[in-house]
Amino acid sequence: MVLGEYFIGRHNWENVDKNKLSDDIPEVDEVGATSAPLLSASYFIGAKCKPYNEDFMLCKDENNGGTVECLKEGRRVTRCAVSVLKDINKYCFDEFKLHYECLEQENHRLGHCRHSEKLLNKCVFDNLKLEKKIPGVQEQIHLKENPIFQGSSQDKSKSAEFLKLKEAEAKN
Amino acid sequence: MQDLPPIGGYEPVQWKRNLPARGFRPVIYFWLITGAMGFGFYRYYKGVDEQRELARERQWARFYLEPLLLAEEDRNVARRYFSEKKRQELVRESMSEEDKAKFDKEIYHDKSKTRLPRYTAGPHPSEH
């Protein structure tokens, strides 16, 4: 088409800017985790990083979005989240992996991965003293016995297998 | 000539149907069905409650992740913002005095907030 030149929708517009942040702004490691591990760790991140998170969100609220103003608070948030993920990886890597792989398989439905979640929560509480707690409710859904919506995942069998392996390892 | 009844009269007519009663008494069916439906409704609303709590769990998970995702995105946006400022400075240096005065003129009176550029200049796609 001759006119194709003028229909901007036909062009693959790119707006790439590869310039780095200036040196006077300290660098920070990005989190780099994908959605399932993040979802799996979210409540622990929320439990540990609450002051930083609230600080950051308040700063953004006060500064009309605060994209430029709240970089410092943002770095703190990221550092804290990275530290939580590092700790989980250090102490509870196997349980963490079991849980986020289940989430990955189960379309990120937390309700379908309760068995591995129980293992992960226990491990994290024992080692990091972080507890999953949903605010504002009496009944914590993740502690509910015999929920109606459990899905048909292999989480139960896989968790049982995991426990068996772990016990066998402990014996040796 | 008229037919007469047989001697001894007719046999009694069976006017009542002799069908065995089928199933339970109606009232038992009523309570059975009511019970089944009651259980169904009970279970259904339990499920509604549970779905609501699951949604709440999902939402709080997202709330806890939001600052971290925003912080990452903000760093990227700020990086581009500073880069754009620097580019504008470079362009400004090669301007004529007239253009420079125009360029330096403030667009907004309100300086209380940072305004991110909505449009940026770039080469035509055919020049990529």
From TrEMBL, chain A:
GO terms under cellular component: mitochondrial inner membrane
Transmembrane segments: none
Family under the similarity heading: Belongs to the complex I NDUFA8 subunit family.
Protein source organism: Pichia sorbitophila (strain ATCC MYA-4447 / BCRC 22081 / CBS 7064 / NBRC 10061 / NRRL Y-12695)
InterPro entries for the chain: NDUFA8
PROSITE patterns: CHCH (PS51808)
Any one GO BP annotation for this protein: mitochondrial electron transport, NADH to ubiquinone
Keyword Repeat attached: yes
Function recorded in the entry: Accessory subunit of the mitochondrial membrane respiratory chain NADH dehydrogenase (Complex I), that is believed not to be involved in catalysis. Complex I functions in the transfer of electrons from NADH to the respiratory chain. The immediate electron acceptor for the enzyme is believed to be ubiquinone.
Compartments in which it is found: Mitochondrion inner membrane
This protein's name: NADH-ubiquinone oxidoreductase
Record's keyword terms, sorted: Disulfide bond, Electron transport, Membrane, Mitochondrion, Mitochondrion inner membrane, Repeat, Respiratory chain, Transport
TrEMBL record, chain B:
Stretches with biased composition (Basic and acidic residues): 91-113
Major localization class: mitochondrion
Organism: Pichia sorbitophila (strain ATCC MYA-4447 / BCRC 22081 / CBS 7064 / NBRC 10061 / NRRL Y-12695) (Hybrid yeast)
Cell wall biogenesis/degradation listed as a keyword: no
Domain of life: Eukaryota
GO cellular component, one term: mitochondrial inner membrane
Family: Belongs to the complex I NDUFA13 subunit family.
Keyword tRNA-binding: no
Ranges for region Disordered: 91-128
Keywords: Electron transport, Membrane, Mitochondrion, Mitochondrion inner membrane, Respiratory chain, Transmembrane, Transmembrane helix, Transport
Matches recorded under InterPro entries: GRIM-19 (IPR009346)
Membrane topology type: Single-pass membrane protein
Membrane-spanning segments: 27-45
Location(s) in or outside the cell: Mitochondrion inner membrane
Name of this chain's protein: NADH dehydrogenase [ubiquinone] 1 alpha subcomplex subunit 13
Function text: Complex I functions in the transfer of electrons from NADH to the respiratory chain. Accessory subunit of the mitochondrial membrane respiratory chain NADH dehydrogenase (Complex I), that is believed not to be involved in catalysis.
